[in-house]
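Sanity check. The docking grid for adenosine-5'-diphosphate depends on where the pocket ends up, so I'm generating a full predicted complex first rather than guessing from homology. Inputs follow.
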Amino acid sequence: MAGKKKVQNFFRSLRMRLVLLFLVIGIVPGAVLRVGILHSYETKAVSNRSIDILNQAKILMNQIVFNGYLVDTSSEIINSQLEQLSNIYDGRVMVIDDNFRIIKDTYGLDEGKTIVSEEVIRSFQGEEISKYDSENGYIELSLPLTEIESKEILGVLLVSVSTDSILLNRDYLQNSALILELSCAMAIALIAIFLAKRLTVPFHRMARGIVDIQNGYKSELDENVYAETEEISVRFNQLFGRMKLLDESREEFVSNVSHELKTPLTSMKVLADSLNGMENVPIELYQEFMNDIGNEIDRETKIINDLLSLVKMDRSAGDLNISSVNINELMDLILKRLRPIAERQNIELVLESFRPVSAEVDEVKLTLAITNLVENAIKYNRPDGWVHVSLNADHQYFYIKVEDSGMGIPEESLEHIYERFYRVDKSHSREIGGTGLGLAITRNAILMHRGAIKVFSTEGEGTTFNVRIPLNYIAS
Ligand code: ADP
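Predicted complex below; grid placement will be based on this.
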């Protein structure tokens, strides 16, 4: 089974395809060239031979007519010339008179017989015919014997010569070419196998590199022989980096959550233990301690609720509860809730509404999203700073802008801030109660509404978040 798979993989491999490609590119042009050249050779050799015979025959024809050979075939000179022509070209020459009678046949076979072939008839009408029969390997010429002055056609000269010598040459050339071609094909095949192996080495190295990364021997892929492998390496490293970051952040989040959840429990344990350790405890102390324990339970509940809302705020799992909402009122309410936190740090919090806006949104999720943005603008601000929030709309969208005079976000962090658990300055964020989930929740909530969020920031000067959400909810 594994062997079969291996064979299948071999045929699907880039290496195999490269070998085939090299072979096709290397061998096909040679074969085409061979066939083409041999064909031209044959055509050219046959045409040369026809012209030669025609020239010889023309001289002979003049003599035949001039010496009245058609009436009296005893002329030795002409007879010997006819024999010569037939011998030189390994062929047969026949002279036919105007009664279609063969008066001379260099083979001596058909003398005295009558010949009425198509070619002969056409030649009696004045046509010079040259025909090549490649299948049987001969050239046939049929030429009218014309009286020079009266132009009267007195007979026909038929010459047929074998082209065996030409075909022999052609076959010899073909064999040599084939041997050369096969030798080249073998050399090309060897070079192709060698080259294909070398060319695919970077891909095998890349696969091994990934295994090494999986096993922890290596931390990045750096296969940059080809632009393509370099691009894959860069993309892989980016993906792997993000996975690592996500993994680390997740671990850190779990430990943060555990810590947050343990704190109220520890307080409750201390309070209960000290009550149990005391004797004759006055009822007032009991009431006070029980009140503290109640507060800790409330805190614990709040943390758990927050965690649950995080889990629910998953783009694919979350169901939106859409209703028509007055966004101006919603914004007023959000800022009213956050104003005490802003005042604590003496931060000016301003809302500017350009027009009344009503939109189809999930009120709870949108509130959470905007609250996070404004809360961040306050949290990551400087004392005595400002936060400007504005609301505007056109016929399709409403726009919320949250601008602050805070510390800003470094450029290299901008692409990460929406990632779950990502925080620019971990210790600072933890101090002010951040978990790195706020912007992830915000973005998810906005995307669920088919909206968009963009950030602009200058370190040391401040940050601006622009949010755009459709006025009418677009169901998927
Ligand atoms: P956190 O719970 O830490 O606030 P967020 O997801 O809300 O998490 O924000 C991610 C990080 O982006 C924050 O840790 C902070 O460093 C940075 N950040 C977010 N908003 C601002 C802002 N308005 N000004 C400066 N930094 C910000």
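Relevant for the grid: The first helix runs from residue 2 to 12.
Also worth noting: The chain has a mean pLDDT of 89.
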